[in-house]
Amino acid sequence: MTSPPRPDAPLTVRNRLGRVLARAVVPAWILAGASFKLWERNPQLLPKPVTDVTDAIFVRALGFTREGYLGPALRAMIAIEIAWALTMVFGPVRLARWMGVEMLGLFCAILVVLITSGAASCGCFGASGPSPAWMLAIDATLLVALLACTPGGPASNAAADLRRAAAAAGVGLAIGTATVLAVPDRAAVALPDGAPDAATPADPAPPAPAASGSRAWPAQPTTAKPWYAPEFAEWKGKRLDEQEVMLLASRTLPFNPNEGRCHVVFMREDCEHCHALLNSYFSGPLPAPTVTVAIPDATGEPLENPCGACAKATLPGGITYVFSTPVLLTVQDGVVVGVCTDSEDAEAVRAALNAR
Fold first, then answer.
1. How far is Cα 26 from Cα 353, in angstroms, rounded to an integer?
2. Does 113 reside within a domain?
3. Tens digit of each residue's pLDDT (9 = 90 or more) over 105-117
4. Which of 70, 116, 147, 250 is least surrounded by CB atoms within 10 angstroms?
C-alpha cells in the first residue's frame, strides 16, 4: 500500500506576501500606469529608449512615418500591459511572480537610461506623473519584494498551468485590445481665428508683403491635429509652407519665408541646447533673417533667448509636439535646403547653415 500524500505545508507570511504582490499589488501598479497612458493618449509619454527601438523597426526598417505608427504603437503597448496584468491576476501564481519580475525589471532598465540621460519625466503615469527617480525607487522596491517573497503552495501540474496561463493570456489580450480600441482618438484642436497665441506679443509686426511673382505665406489653419511628430530630415528638398506644423506658428514674421534665404529654429524656452545653439550662431549679426519658433510645453526655468535680432514665433498650446529641440532649418526661396537636429555636432550645424 502507498502512504497517503502529505498535506500541503501551511503558507508562511512571506508566501502570503508574495501572493499578494504577484496577484494584486504589481498587476494593479501596471494597470494604473496603462490607464493613465490610455486616458492621455499622448505618444510623447513613450520613453525615448522605447521610441529609439520602435523608430528603428517601423521608420528605418519598415518605412512607416512617425505620425503613422506612434499612435497605434502606444495603443498596442497599453493593450499588452493590460493583458500582462490580467494574466498575472488569473494565471498560475508562480508564473505571475516571474511575469512581475520581468516587467518590473524592464521598467527599471528603462528608468535607469532615462535618469542617466537627464530626463525630467518618464511618462509612466501621464505627463504630470512622478519623476524617473521616484518611479525607479518604487519599481525597484516592488522588484526586490517579488524576488524575496515566493508564493509557496503545492507543487503544480505543468500541463494544467500551461492551459491556465494560455487561457488567462488570451482573455487578457482580448480585453486589452477591446479596451484600447474602444477609446477614440483625441479630438482635433480648434485654433483661434486670427487671434495671437497667449505667448505672442499683443501687437505683433505684420508679415512683409509678398514680392511680385513670389508665393505668399499661407494663412494659419483653423484646426490642428492633437499631436505632431514631424520627421525634420524628410523636410529637406520640400517646401516649408507644405509642412503643417510650421503653418501653426503664430503670425509674427516680419519677412516672408518664401522669399530669399532664412533660418528657422524650433526651440523650447527651458532647453539648454537651444540656448547654446542660439548663443553660438545667432547672438551677433544674423547670417540671414531668422525666426525662433517656441514649443509651448517647457516645464523648467525659462532661459533668455540670446538672439535679440531673431523674429519670435510660438506654436499654439493644447497640442502635443513629439520631437526634441533644437531643430535648425535653412530655407531658400521657400524650400528647405538644410536640416540639423543634433546641435552638438558642429559640422552638422555648419552644414545646415551653409546649405544651398
1. 51
2. yes
3. 999 999 999 888 8
4. 116
